[in-house]
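Sharing a chain and its predicted structure for anyone who wants a worked example. Both blocks are below, sequence first, tokens second.
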Amino acid sequence: MMRSKIAVLVPCYNESATIAKVVEDFKATLPEADIYVYDNNSTDGSDEIASATGAIVHYEYRPGKGNVIRAMFRNIQADCYLMVDGDDTYPAEYARKMTELILEGKADMVIGDRLSATYFTENKRAFHNTGNVLVKKLVNLFFNGSVKDIMTGYRAFSPLFVKTFPILSKGFEIETEMTIHALDKNLNIVEIPVSYRDRPEGSESKLNTYSDGIKVLFTIFNLFKDYRPLTFFSLIAVMLSVLSAGLFVPILLDFLQTGLVLRFPTLFISGFVMLAALLSFSCGLILDSLKRRERQDIEFKLNLMQMLRQGFQCNEERENL
């Protein structure tokens, strides 16, 4: 386990064209920080370049950015974590402000907001622009948020966030999961606009517009089901109820006119669909109760972590005296 006051976390996969500049820029901006580069099976010598530039290099052999972030969060102990991509798209000039917000206790997660700055003019991939806007609207709609940039890779975190974040994603959908976790657990989110620049010539993006976009949308769908079960299953119950009523009303009208039930199969289907609606709503109620209990447990753990951290700081101060 490695402990730093400020840890700069750089996931890296085949970034030989840019990794040296990223490490040098953040060393110049945060000279007191430790720069951790986690190499994810690079084949272009990115790890050697990072090490020669002064970074602390570690390896994560399971492919995917989510797996890299999981290893970083587990192994590194710090008072502030700053995450940045190794592609030199995020300027280091904002790092000081982002880390100060964490160290001063003003935020649990600081988001470097690209979309309010230069992203739409710098990014040349139109579908990426559309995807970012769509994901932002969906997450804010489903989770009652007002976050301006859901998928940015430039973030700072408190230990409270890092050690309570259950990472489920394996790939680039990790940023969406981070945002949803912070919204659901009522953690303090602060956004600051940051300029964005497109990758320099010779540096290739690892994102696949369509496959990674579909993964992100499925992540939102699954997390909505997991984090908002009552709303999710209630929507299903409403749709099934409407379908059941649509099947039942004509049968009821025929019965009122003739006194006979002329379509028993349709009546049975309508009844089963209504039972499915009631079952869906019941599942939502049960899962919502379990989710509420989980939130209570999380709050208890957060309070316990804060008490332990304060006690640790007091012991350090006594030792220094």
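Comments welcome. The chain is about 55% helix and 15% strand.
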